[in-house]
What we know:
- By secondary structure, this protein is an all-alpha fold.
- The chain has a single domain (9-85), classed as Non-ribosomal Peptide Synthetase Peptidyl Carrier Protein, Chain A.
- The chain is built from 4 helices and no strands.
- The protein is globular and about 30 Å long.
Amino acid sequence: MVATRTFSKEELRQIIFNQLRGLAPEADLNYLRPYDDIREALEIDSFDFLNFLIGLAKETGVEIPEKDYGKVSTLEGLINYLLARL
């Protein structure tokens, strides 16, 4: 999958939050800090995290290989990872 457009940091944040709301609708994402581990903070299991990354790939055109999961475990890391590939 190839990214076809560029996104601002704020647009990516909104895309990420929309995807996370689908997985954890009860979570208050306003409390998710930039360097919190997303899975731990929102108590999402590995299967849900994978579905989250697949949803992001569909919206952004950026696929995240398993070897890079450690780079995208936080909100800040994920945004920076996506920005570097768009």
